[in-house]
Input
Amino acid sequence: MFFNLKLYLAAAAQLFRVPTDPDLTRAQFDAFSKQIPLLYFILITNSVAVAYTYVPLAPVWLSVIVPALLVSVAGFRTFWWLRQRHVVRSDADILRNLRLTNRIAAPISAGFAVWAFSLYPYGDAFAKSHVAFYMAVTVIGCIFSLMHLRSAALIVTLVVDVPYVLFFFATGEPTLEAMAVNNLLVTGAMVTVLVIYYRDFADLVSSRKSLIAQQEATQALSDENFRLANLDSLTELPNRRRFFAELSSAFADAERRSVRLAVGIIDLDGFKPINDNYGHSVGDRVLIEAGRRIRDVCEGFAANRVAFARLGGDEFGLVVCGDPADQDLLELGQRIGERVKLPYQIDTAHTALSCSIGFAVFPESATDAEALYECADYSLYHAKRHMRGRTVIFSSELEAEIRSRGVIENLLRTSDFATEMHLVFQPIVDAMSERTSGFEVLSRWNSPRLGLVSPADFIPAAERIGLIRPLTQALLVRALAAAKTWPDDIRVSFNLSAHDVCASDGILPLIAIINASGLSPRRIDFEITETAVTFDFTRAQQSIAALKAMGCGISLDDFGTGYSSLSHVHRLPLDKIKVDRSFVADVNENPVSHKIIKSLTGLCADMEMACVVEGVETRAQLDSLRRLGCDYIQGYYFAKPMPESTIADYLAAEAKRLGEGAQRAKIPA
Output
């Protein structure tokens, strides 16, 4: 029982204390600071009215001086509270001021109550009734004004109302006794209302606090969702969506300020073979590291602000703000290239990359953000085709190239392959006997509008617009028909693109053409570049295996100009390797070229593959290549590409030449 009494007393004492919850005290202070001036207004006006009633009845010190002092204190507090509306206070200041109000509530209310009781004896019946009315009305007004600070309201009620009821009940006057009882009941009802209101007020503050916390949590979740929606999950870099949002914003700002803006696209050279050779896990870690290196360069580039993102695969995007000069872009590209080229040590894998970068600049290159990006993409395309591993800025020359490319693509869509496409054939000669063993098929396009168009232009165009497969099939039909008229020991060598060997339906159309041609598959060689192999190695491997199973030969074209070549050599069923012409031009002058060809011929011999060397133009080159062990030669030294109609004459002339040579060899010296 004693323990319960202590709990009740502690709970009762809590009613007279200011709460310490910062949110509740701040809400109390905000509401209280608006109502407290009204409390003092009620107190001052009622006190002045009572003092005025008692001026002719009570001594001056009691009717004038004392109320003047009390009204001065109330006026000072009113002025102080009015100033709080414009003061930003900390939680600690608010708690301190509320506690001060709580402490001075008792002495101020006691001072006014004692003054009123002191006046009572000097008055007549009306004046005494005025005192009773004054105290009852004033305490009710104070309770209403203090309802947001429950503790102060209860203190005022106890300090004023308890003495009031006792004092007037003790007068013996029935009217005053009734007023005392009435005031007690009304005050009790008001205290009940006060307690309920304060509880609801505290609950409202708590609910608001919970709502704010919930809103903050919702906002945090929304912010996190927005961050994730704009973040690449692998590299944790901004993603493609964020890149284009940044580009749109930066473009609008550059357009408004009439300053330059650059868009850059980075493509990693040699990344796909890493995936093929070491697996996607290693490839992902290489991507993460490459992205980190590029980001560090962008963040440390003092000349301009650079926004950096991963666009997808092994492509990254740059938005260079701050009026960049061309030299700034070239310097940025150089720094990125140098960092990307540093070795990557991932577990036991030791790999290397390079990168090609294409830039386009507003307003010189384009007048809208989408076109600017397309120009940067074409600059990258140009860099990868002609300046691999370097930085290219979009220029008027590239713009003219784009226009030309567009013309080629449009005319190619409407071209008649049967009449406009022609085939020429270049001999592939046995290096030792100098006898033609086969012909490589090369395509030529004679456009009615453009005239002769280089394969370097129309083949990529056909790949871009999706015409390369029907073009390949049409040309293969004609090539096999021509080869059928040749001697049985002459082979035909035909080039396939990445789209031919990596198509979703495989190479079934090509197999059907071979079967329909009537030409033995064993007389057919298909040449496939390293670029085609790396486009989709798994599918390319399946296609090559199918051709090989038919009896066709497989040659790896332009060997040495791609990347990770040795991995392809040992994983594919190859019959021949064609060494690129770039190593032949200076084979007799450049020791490096000489050593490279020597190594390649040795590799072919060890792996039981034939070595075909392209671009042979002089007897000196032929003699050197013979000594190095090359098996087959192709180049202008023997013949330029020729039309089908001249092949019979060429073979006849060759047979005559070789026959005369053999005859001379038999004549004794």
